[in-house]
Design goal:
2 copies of one chain form a homodimer. By secondary structure, chain A is mainly α. The first copy, chain A, has 7 helices and 4 strands. Helices cover 61% and strands 8% of the residues of chain A. The mean pLDDT of chain A is 92. β4 of chain A pairs antiparallel with β4 of chain B, so a sheet runs across the interface.
Chain lengths: 185, 185
DNA sequence: TGTAGCATGTAAGCCGTTACATGATTGA
DNA sequence: TCAATCATGTAACGGCTTACATGCTACA
């Protein structure tokens, strides 16, 4: 058993977004990422998307189609090739489990908060709750918009997962505020 | 109002860990990070810790003390200076709110899972539940070990926050498995 | 005697970001 | 006509990781 080689995850993000549509420009991939993958991974920067597309094309995993008809503006769409789809499936099915990575600035500041003013911590936590509430609203709307579209069934699954995830974030934050209140009212 | 300048967050991780003890070596800082900050941020690599310490020392935020007595093995401890403590407090209290960043490989694979074998997805989700259960056990033990130590009071707060956070992760994952089962039993 | 842990670094490299730069198209 | 959006890139840099390298110390 030789060692399996895997591309960086960002490559699979791009590959994966292309699996939802026949052909997309780099710009459209980015837009799609902002509406979906953003909630569970990072939406790659524009320049990153173009770099991934270059790499994927060189590897034969995507195919570029020049759609700049005549002398109009440049427009290139990309579509998954058969090897590209196979590689995507291989990653989804067989890549080794990686636990989620979180960078939780609020929790970190709270952890170090012994040296800080209590009220400042509380308003930080409140800002965080507002943010979580906003995200949950977005996710609920996404879930509603998906409806019964088969192609996006798993996106609905993930949207509901996300709503639960950020809902827990909200109630945990509230619980922390309560604990702080009890400690020094 | 000029623009505030902030160090990268990893600097505050190191600074913050030093706020818990009088003086620590780079190695000890890393050990402490693995036992605490790991759950809410990344534990920086050893080499990263040393680089931060260099930078912080150059900025006068920490002070190095050579403890290699005689010709023994090299050992340098670091302690927070007064400006270092002030800068840490400034960050905890006044740095702009940053939402948490998650890189959730499992959710991403699920999102793209339309093209994948259902059973492979389910065993991925089960691996994830095992991982979450393990983390929760660790956090509970940390919380018990802290007890009433004033200095670690906020660490307890964060340990309980983490247990709730990863508990939600566990039940959300379970809910997704149930949804998958209902979809195609 | 040997191995695990303590302790400190250097080098190389990828990933991903921000900033910069350019220009077409569409609609108000 | 002007602004927002579409569309594509380049350059530079910072951050962080892995791999490499070294050697002491304590303990079994």
């Amino acid at each position: 058993m030789g060692e399996q080689e895997w591309l960086p995850t960002s490559s699979y993000v791009v590959l994966g977004l292309l699996s939802f549509d026949a052909a997309l420009t780099g710009y459209e991939i980015r837009q799609l990422a902002l509406g979906t993958v953003r909630f569970l991974w990072a939406a790659p920067a524009m320049s990153q998307v173009y770099r991934e597309l270059e790499r994927l094309e060189a590897a034969g995993l995507v195919e570029a189609i020049d759609e700049s008809e005549g002398s109009e503006r440049a427009r290139t769409t990309y579509r998954l090739t058969d090897p590209g789809l196979a590689e995507l499936r291989r990653w989804v099915e067989d890549s080794p489990y990686e636990p989620p990575v979180i960078r939780h600035q609020v929790a970190l500041r709270l952890f170090l908060g012994r040296i800080a003013d209590r009220d400042k911590l509380v308003s930080l936590l409140e800002a965080h709750r507002d943010w979580a509430a906003g995200l949950i609203a977005e996710l609920d709307e996404i879930d509603r918009n998906i409806g019964d579209d088969e192609r996006w069934a798993n996106a609905g699954l993930v949207a509901r997962w996300g709503a639960r995830f950020y809902g827990a974030e909200d109630s945990s934050t509230e619980a922390v505020v309560r604990e702080l209140d009890e400690r020094d009212p």
